[in-house]
Amino acid sequence: MQRSFSALSMAAAMTLLAAAPAVAVNTVTTANGANWQIHDAAPPILDTGSIRAISDNAFYGFGGIRVKVADIPATDPTARLNGELMRGFGLTFDGEDSFATTTPVGLGGVAISRTIKVSKAGNWTRWLDTFANTTGRTITVDVTFGGTAGLNTTNNQSKVAATSSGDSTIDNADTWVSINSPNAAGVSSRGPSAVVTGAQSGTGNFQRDPFGAALPTTGLEANFYGYRNTITLAPGQTKSLLRYVVAGRTETTSTIGAQTSAVGAAAATLAGTPDLAGLSASALCTVTNFTLAQDCASTPVPALPTLPEAKLKTTSSGYDVVDKSITQLANDMASGLTTSQEITRAYLDRIAAYDQGQFGFHSFITVAKNAMAQAQAADVARAQGVKGDLLGVPVIIKDLYDTKDMPTTDGSLAFEGWQPKRDAGQVKRLRDAGAIILGKGNLSEFANSGSYSESGYGMVWNAFKPSKTSLGSSGGSAVAVATSLAGFGMGSQTGVSLYAPSTGASLVTLRGTDGIASGAGVMPLTWLQDFAGPIARTTSDIARILNVTTGTDPDDIATVHADADAKRPADWKVALDPKALQGKRIGYLPSSFTSAGSYGQSDGTVEAVMARFADIQAAGASMVELTTNPPSGPSGPTLTGNRAEEGWQQYFDLHENPPYKTASEILSSPKVLPYNRQTVAARPRMTAADNQAVMLNRDEYKARIKTWMDAAGVDAVVYPGFRSDVYDNDGAQTLSSDRNSGVLTSNVGLPTLVLPIGANPHGDPISIQFVGRAFEDAKMLGFGYALEQQLGGKGHLAPATAPRLAFAKDTPATVGGTVPATLALGLGAPATFGAFTPGVDQEYTATTKASVISTAGDATLSVAEPGHLVNGAFSLPEPLRVSFSKAVWSGPTSNENVDITFKQLVKKTDALRTGSYSKTLTFTLSTTNP
Questions:
Q1: Quick check: is 473 catalytic?
Q2: Among residues 68, 239, 398, 465, which one is catalytic?
């Protein structure tokens, strides 16, 4: 046995979200013409191994695995993702039909890998999921395979067509299940599919709680199939689960049942004779849910993967930023309790801990390299007497706002490396106010999705339930604020892109009246409908941001048209009146609060929102049921140009070095995600008269809504934020959250204050929206503030997925005396097991002693990976295990004896070779405080 001395040190590092290869969502086409899109490590980097979509099929986001490891130690940082959708496998596509893991996912010491093969001839895909126990303890692992196989309770409701037991009820005896989506005529309007599970231990509701909630047999949630297996892993043991999905195509009235029968027959064949092509003998010997004819006695076990040591992350900042509002951050800096540098360091440490890696939220695309320098400048300015509500407060900027010191990508690799020479109008105002531009927030590519935030740089995951969508397109900004990776965020909205991610993150946002804030230097989606605005924890925070960011900008014609300086209040904080709702009449449309939404089933979300009507009334307002629907807008003006093209041309006009000349060049770039890529003919610009016509058209619509509200005698109209749960993050279809409440915000350009009001029965955040007349932005802010106060802080929720970091900071001190730094480790006689007996299950034990001398402030005794006892080139199959009677010291010790115990398991089926076995081990006595 060898001995060595080492001193351990810890260093902090900042990494950025790296751009992935310029390919995305690899697709394999099977013989029946179906395109299978598999989520691998290519952009948008979901890397789950699940199905994004299959041509005309109901499997959207199917084939992922949720994994729950029993008894994960509290010190293991992966415990926070226990039970969630596994991701980060580094799945690589071979260009033909297969995907393989390059980096196993570590969960509680279990190394998880996936290999996937699409059978082009068979119209099916195979998953082999492998679980290796890298620890010295026995571990129980629950695994659920599945996802979404239907979208509602009507035309896209999935039905069990057949099972291996011959009925339409799934039970534990079934080894395969086929489903379809029949319409009233019996035609499966979406391609039927089948899942081959082999032996399984039950089903669960994959979207909600696959390990505890039973799979319903009717309703919306009957679409969320989860097939469960429980496996037990001894130390060093590897086991695998084998599953198949068969996909058919849409049926017609002349082929009713044909596709359903075909997928059922294919599933039955695979269940009886699974296709194992390309799988090694070692891999097949680990499969537990099929009985395979394999000679495993003489087959070597797969090599045990090496996982990085799971260490809790720390911060070197002594100031806790978790769930701190702008108001509190500013007050604590003003009082001298903390500094901008301490605050910024805390956020940077949290970004390093929670935003990157396999289980990262991926809310940032870029983190500012000069963030600490910005913070130092803010501290100097404060010391010189400069004051300001945002001075020294870090902000995440959605990556479609120009920043002169960082790239601006619009979430697309088409803009990779593009760095403007000037800030967007609102960014300049924030920088001038002393805010720290901490980094650029991830978003859906070109901000064109309200359901997801998936870009060429990765997918943003939900702050509260990390298997689910963050919503879009401002998901990065919202998730970073919710998880306390930034003090506040800036986002944008064309349709729902401020309110959807803010609701999903339990945050406040204000989509202001058209023209109240500048969009200059903000990459466009729909010209003269886009709105750039704030996301924060409280209405007070929003007021402080709006004081800086709103007003007329000569570079933005909408603010000039609106005369924003005249329309905005001199101080938005004046609107923060706890009595703002007293005597007010708040209208609501019953049709906007129908509990079923478009999915045909209530899950309690709308009822939870409507329960807050009582709080609005308690704040002094009356609720008014509206009996007339809001008027539709005027006919759109006839334009000589194109709004999408005009938006980009207006953006290009502000830059000396635009990377493109037309919108069509951007959309046709090979770096654009394939499902967003388009070939668009060159389109003409709008004239000045065209621009004026669009603004006047929107003004007229605002006037119609004012007349409608005046006739009803209401001060505002409220709408629900969401009307259902938030759903998983890996499907192409928009099964996220039912937002179709008819809210007027974006189409009209009206001020809408979105306020978090708690959670629905399943724990998903919910919100209420106050919609007012044009330029009643401050009034809506006041209504939100009054309800926020009435709720007493119970509206905004903080997620538990990014807990506080332990504070760790080296502090030098002067020490007197002449005792030298000493670490000494003595080992007793070599340990011996004696003779091993072949053909018998037995665990052998051997012991020796160590003597420890340490003058350090702490010491740790460890042993390098024991590996396996060897006899020449032959090694025992089971790993050697080593334990200590004591391994950690919190102070000096001298000649302290430690018992070292060695254990070796020999199974009755383990082959043994005649001769002596041995292993040289390295024991290390180390310290972090010599």
A1: yes
A2: 398
